[in-house]
Amino acid sequence: MSTGVGWDPAVYLTFDDDRSRPFYDLLARIGADAPRRVVDLGCGPGHLTGVLSARWPGAEVAALDSSPDMVADARARGIAAEQADVRDWSPGERDDVVVCNAVLQWVPEHPELLVRWVRALNPGAWFGMQVPGNFGAQSHALVRELAARERWRGRVTLRHEDAVLSPERYAESLAAAGASVDAWETSYLHRLTGPDPVLNWITGTALRPVRAALSDPEWEEFRAELAPRLRAAYPERADGTTWFPFRRIFVVARG
């Protein structure tokens, strides 16, 4: 889901298997039997939308994303994706399941959106979301530290740890809105390989605002400065493996 800076579907899909694991974990906790309509809210390149169709073959499946590049990529996969911003979206009368995977961390006002959506759900409808919870990790802290240096200061706005809430705060907010809530967190330990794998991972996500703000030569300069910092924080093992811990936050709410 774009918020004003471009997405590159090919870069995003570089670590597809690792990035997709939380989607399946989220889906496993949604107990809908025969929904009329399932919404993939922030579908990205549509590579997981088909999983929703397979899980609920009798349902109409809608796919929405605000990035024109992601929508085009999804359509190339045969997904009838539409361009839409989550800020403008509301649940419809037939929307019995809504899945929002790795989207809302880009939307500062999303806690208020969640309350509005949950209140608008049909009785018995399901809403499931997953967001990264690793904004305090070195993979983000080192980017912020480098961006604050004189060479780059003021060039780009980056997200901090308050980009998402804790599971407890999400649960309290949505329960107060009248939903039955299941909230939890999971820390994945991704086994990455190849040169500068953490840099390559965050290039498709956390570094998007940096890429959008800098010229091509500046972008290469920034990456060159960041790479050794990330290698020191996430050292490669003798077998070529780099372990990359990644915390994620999940919420399933039922209206």
From TrEMBL:
<dbReference type="InterPro" id="IPR023506">
    <property type="entry name" value="Trans-aconitate_MeTrfase"/>
</dbReference>
<comment type="similarity">
    <text>Belongs to the methyltransferase superfamily. Tam family.</text>
</comment>
<keyword id="KW-0808">Transferase</keyword>
<keyword id="KW-0489">Methyltransferase</keyword>
<dbReference type="Pfam" id="PF13489">
    <property type="entry name" value="Methyltransf_23"/>
</dbReference>
<dbReference type="InterPro" id="IPR023149">
    <property type="entry name" value="Trans_acon_MeTrfase_C"/>
</dbReference>
<keyword id="KW-0949">S-adenosyl-L-methionine</keyword>
<protein>
    <recommendedName>
        <fullName>Trans-aconitate 2-methyltransferase</fullName>
        <ecNumber>2.1.1.144</ecNumber>
    </recommendedName>
</protein>
<comment type="function">
    <text>Catalyzes the S-adenosylmethionine monomethyl esterification of trans-aconitate.</text>
</comment>
<dbReference type="InterPro" id="IPR029063">
    <property type="entry name" value="SAM-dependent_MTases_sf"/>
</dbReference>
<keyword id="KW-0963">Cytoplasm</keyword>
